[in-house]
Prior knowledge:
alpha/beta
Amino acid sequence: MxxxxxxxxxxxxxLHILKGDVPTVEPGRILGHEAVGTVVEVGVGxxxxxxxxxxxxxxxxxxxRCSYCRQxxxxxCLGGGGWILGHLIDGTQAQYVRVPFxxxxxxxxxxxxxxxxxxMVADTLPTAYEVGVLAGRVGPGQSxxxxxxGPIGLAAVLTARLFSPAVLAVVDLAESRLAAARGAGAxxxxxxxxxxxxxxxxxxxxxxxDVAIEAVGxxxxxxxxxxxVRPGGHVANVGVHGKPxxxxxxxxxxxxxxITTGLVDTRTTPTLLRMVERGQLDVAQLxxxxxxxxxxDEAYEVFADAGHSGALKVVLTAGTGQVP
Length: 324
């Protein structure tokens, strides 16, 4: 199926690719794995979609038939899917995108959800929810610490709130992002330059967090997450790592920890779309900058320099100028 791209965004993973952290991406690849668009052409095997349909293009492509897809683990698809857009095949940061396995890799959209809102459900929201909140087994009354207040970290705050944790703390270097975390519902914010582990323990009766969600993707933040959780705690790693991290088993073998990693499956995308449509999840706050689809160079510069620009998610749309 061919989709005309109406709105697209840039992911932190795209920056990791440009840094060389994902060597499986070949030079010349068109990046991007999130888009909202209009169907312009379908293949002979597509029966439930037609030209003119408005769709969300998911970051994960699913054959729908292999053993992993039948378990709902679409990120591990063995039939030619998984994370392929902007990775193994050309992606969504273009005027048109070819979407394989269209019926199981896109979602038809209703008029109750805007392009920008839907775009946040292409990758950001399900990644934070599935790999962070659900994998971390966040529950009522728990203490949860999210390390990194970028788009994924903020989406983790939004979706962790669905489970009513007693403490929902966020760690970051930038005050603007900590302010955004408070706006998203964080109960506490912590400057990453402080003694983070000591502050977390002070919030949790000296025991440490029940769940730490790593949403940065560098060794120090992962290692801090392991250190800050209590015995029996859970570290849910969401960040994309380009370099090794040290796991101190000489210290932690006795602590009964659970560490999970993963690629999003997007099995929760239909549920999240419904929640956004009904106003149960406010994702509009994640979008800070808007550009015309022709302004990719500028959009990448702003997104990559988030410390100065304050960028969270940037959205590029067809036929609109930049909005300050």
